[in-house]
Amino acid sequence: MIMDFARTALLIIDVQNDFCPGGSLAVADGDAVIIPLNTVSRHCVHKGAAVIATQDWHPHNHISFRSAQKESSAEKPALWPDHCVQGTYGAAFHEALDLKPVRLVLRKGFRPDTDSYSAFFENDRRTVTGLNGFLREAGVDTIFIGGLATDYCVLYTALDGRRLGFTTIVLLDAVRGVGYPSGSVEKALLSMEKEGVVLINSRNIIDYSLQ
Length: 211
Ligand code: VGL
Ligand code: ZN
What we know:
Bound molecules: pyrazine-2-carboxylic acid, zinc ion
Distance between the termini: 10 Å
CATH architecture: 3-Layer(aba) Sandwich
Largest sheet: 6 strands, parallel
Strand order of the largest sheet: 3-2-1-4-5-6
CATH class: Alpha Beta
CATH superfamily: Isochorismatase-like
Structural class: alpha/beta
CATH topology: Rossmann fold
Low-confidence stretches: none
Number of strands: 6
Number of helices: 5
Shape: globular
Order of helices and strands: EHEEHEHEHEH
Number of domains: 1
Strand content: 15-25%
């Protein structure tokens, strides 16, 4: 594998307090993604890659919150406990995540009536976040993805990455899943593979690019 890091971006998805142990939508072992992500992001930035971190960033009455559900809402999203409310501790990046390599912080899910799992499109599949444009202008054709959660935001970001024509690589040791409904992580990995997403261990990036 020959990597032109100048054409590569690392997407760090939603490594926020609410998705880590103790948070309101805690992913089991969620903070275990931080050590591999810090290693990869320092390496990638040193080689000239763009490092981008996303943040789930919901208003307090967001449509995906069970607490805010209206009978009449047109979108029937999955319902979650309140999480990643704008400006709260739960929405902040985990303090152990190294933000120094991060070039762009992209916030998503900020419209009260739409959820956004993917870093590229909101769940209506049409409203763009601007990430595709940013990556194109930066000359990126390959994306590495790590973070939370394997079966939601990582999954949708990876599938959209493929759909938009990026070589898309998910770092298995740097993702963790919600696992709800049961089997969703396994299902997510299968559907990513089916769409041509490459699943590797993050060590491989570093080992290959040292040669
Ligand atoms: C996520 C559920 C709700 C995620 C965000 O980051 O995977 N999951 N909001
Ligand atoms: Zn959310």
